[in-house]
Amino acid sequence: MSDARSQILDRIRTATGGAAAPPESRREYRHHDERSHAERVELFCERVGDYQAEVKRVHRDQLRAAIRNALKRHQAKRVAIPASFPQAWLSPSVEFIHDQGLTARELDGFDAVVTGCSVAIAETGTIVTTGGQYEGRRLLSLVPDLHICIVSESQIVGLVPEALAQVQLLVSRQRRPLTFISGPSATSDIELERVEGVHGPRKLVVLVVGEENP
Amino acid sequence: MKGPTESFPVAANRELGNAQLRSNLGNATSTIRAKRARVVEELPDWEALRDAGSAIKADVLANLDTYLLQFEQALTAAGATVHWARDGAEACAVVAEVARAHGADEVVKVKSLTTDEIELNATLAAQGIHALETDFAELILQLDGDWSSHILVPAIHRNRTEIRDLFQRTIAPDITSDEPGVLAEAARVYLRERFLNAKVGVSGANFGVAETGTLCVVESEGNGRMCTTLPPVLVSIIGIEKLVPSFADLEVFLQLLPRSSTGERMNPYTSLWTGVTEGDGPQELHVVLLDNGRTRVLEDEVGRQALHCIRCSACLNVCPVYSRTGGHAYGSVYPGPIGAILTPQLIGIENAPSLPFASSLCGACYEVCPVKIDIPRVLLHLREKSVDAVGGRTERAAMSGVGWVFGRAWRLRLAQRIGRVLQRPFVRDGVIRRLPPPLSAWTDSRDLRPIAPAHPSDENSGNDDE
Question: Residue B455: its pLDDT value, please?
């Protein structure tokens, strides 16, 4: 294969050799959101809602009950959580199972998963997970049909560039895998009619937690 | 990559006879067009993002060798195996070899134009390996031996009852309803088992980050996440032009792509992975860097901007020609305006001489292109090359294109509308004194009366199917 490698590189050098240097990349787009914290949180909730996800704002003290209620509302009984999920969020009346290396097939037997996130983007209604301790492995938030995601207000940034700046080091230093989630899985492949839920979770519940970082 | 087997006017004429195609396509393109306009309007810095996207891509092409080596190094350090493929056959051979090494007679696939371009599925099938398409529309087409008519919604030419009947014959014998939700559920059930059993996943990539070795797949359904996280082995095939220099560059394209493509603020799922992550996702990652004609495109200083393309399909949806003929008329994996400039360059102009004429040069494609590819300029450039390459044959093809344009009243109205836009830069005091070459040969010796301003009723009817 090294043959193909040197030949492709040679072709590139021949093709681009002597060409004028392209103009410097201009970056005149917005890098910092000018909204107030309250506006940003409001916008995030609105935009997540636009994707037909359920959004609920809760005070930190109500989080445990809010998780339990959401699971109950969706009749979810077997619930997966990341290996090091905070005990304080877990209601004793629900069967939570920590992910200690669950297989995809095992996870397929679960009704729901509860995770946190690393950062959220108001303008696009996006949640970013990075495999952190409250987020777990990628397949956790993929295989079960209901994903309940906890977003702290303090994690919400305004713009896409602000979110990428926050996770950049996790990628360049730790090579963490990222998943951007904007609403439930969806398709518009048949006559352009939107259907929520094809292969990923068909239901996404976002609990936006106020005041302090949980 | 296969080129068109017939000239564009011939194929377009046939496709125009397909009433269902025209109606579905008309609805789809106008709906997506409106959605796109709404979400683009929302961003005050859209033009700045386009400028940045265009500049980043120009930088990538100018320094492609450096970025590819950097990408290779970062990937290798992250535990991936990097393969270089001069053409489709070499890329397919890598996938086949990996599948064989793991005893897999089936691989699960993310929708990928690049793998369509290299005819991966047919090549694997010939070696006894089934490449299962997992995108909903691609699955529909695969089950029916059909092929894509639109980059983004490949099965848009099929109706729900046809799809239900197809599913009855294939994956869901008991299905009775033709509700899209029910059909999607059938695909979910059918594919879930296949995902859980898959040994090898195959994906393309929307972007590759040279600095970090990160690969990025942008999608909606979750099948991309399934294919890139569940199988223990993953092969990702990426065109060499899909790189961006740094991780931060993604902040530009992750804004440009979804808004231009599906008209959403963000697509449901974007996956980014950097080599192999212990305990999470595939533990063996192969990355194939694919040339397959791209270095040939790079040689052409005017035409190389076609390599900026991020496959959003915005140019398809605004194109007056595409929105009537559909994708099949282009006879290539890449349809629409971008296909008309990309395909002839990838496979050689002599193999697709009529494609650069498959356009009315109205300029709408350039206006919506998120990375500012000047498609009309490249079309004109390639028309010249087409004439040089095959001479009279092309002129005849072009002339039959003219015949096609003037064949019906609405087409003429459309052509006039387009002409009005195009002539703007050249009209001075109500007269065209000088046109750019080759038309300057005409205006050198005479003034030209511009096309008259439109009557309001013309403007409306120009866009209608009579």
Answer: 44
* Span(s) in chain B for CATH 3.40.50.10420: 46-292
Can you tell me the distance from the alpha carbon of B432 to that of B410, in angstroms, rounded to the nearest whole number?
A: 25
Distance, in Å, from the CA atom of B344 to the CA atom of A74, rounded to the nearest integer, reads 53
Inside any domain, residue A4: no
Position B344 confidence tier, pLDDT thresholds 50, 70, 90: very high
Q: Please list every residue in chain A whose beta carbon sits closer than 8 Å to the beta carbon of residue B181.
A: 195
Question: If you count them, how many residues does chain B have?
Answer: 466
Kindly report the backbone phi and psi dihedral angles of residue B280, in degrees, each rounded to the nearest multiple of 5, phi listed first.
-140, 110
Count of domains observed in chain A: 1
> What confidence tens digit (pLDDT) does each residue in B295-339 have?
999 999 999 999 999 999 999 999 999 988 988 899 989 999 999
The answer to whether B141 faces chain A, any CB pair under 8 Å, is no
**Cβ-nearest to B27 among A2, A171, A192:** A192
Residue B122's closest CA among B1, B300, B284?
B1
Q: Which helix (H) or strand (E) holds B219?
A: strand B214-219
Residue A19 belongs to some domain of the structure: no
Using one digit for the tens of pLDDT, what is the confidence trace for B3-15? 888 899 889 888 8
**CATH number for the B46-292 domain, one of 3.30.70.1060, 3.30.530.20, 3.40.50.10420, 1.20.1250.20?**
3.40.50.10420
- Report how far residue B453's alpha carbon sits from residue B458's, in angstroms, rounded to the nearest whole number: 10
* Closest to B148 measured CA to CA, from B121, B108, B177, B187: B121
pLDDT per residue as tens digits for the range A117-160: 999 999 999 999 999 999 999 999 999 999 999 999 999 999 99
Q: Is the peptide bond before B370 cis (omega within 30 degrees of 0)?
A: no
B86 touching chain A per CB within 8 A: yes
The range of the structural domain enclosing residue A46 comes to: 34-210
Whether A26 is covered by a domain: the verdict is no
Q: Do B289 and A142 touch (CB under 8 A)?
A: no
CATH number for the domain including A98? 3.40.50.10420
Angstroms from A27 CA to nearest CA on chain B: 6
Q: Which of A4, A9, A180 has the CB atom closest to B65's CB atom?
A: A9
Residue B452 has pLDDT above 90, yes or no: no
Summary mean pLDDT of chain B: 88
Among chain A residues, CA nearest to B21? A191
Which chain A residues are within 8 Å of B211, Cβ to Cβ? 172
- Residue A72 main-chain phi, psi, to 5 deg: -65, -45
* Nearest-CB residue to A138 (from B160, B188, B229): B229
Q: Which residues lie across from B234 on neighbouring strands?
A: B201, B285
Nearest beta carbon to residue B299 from set A15, A121, A131: A15
Neighbours of B16 (CB within 10 A): 18
Residue A139 forms part of a structural domain: yes
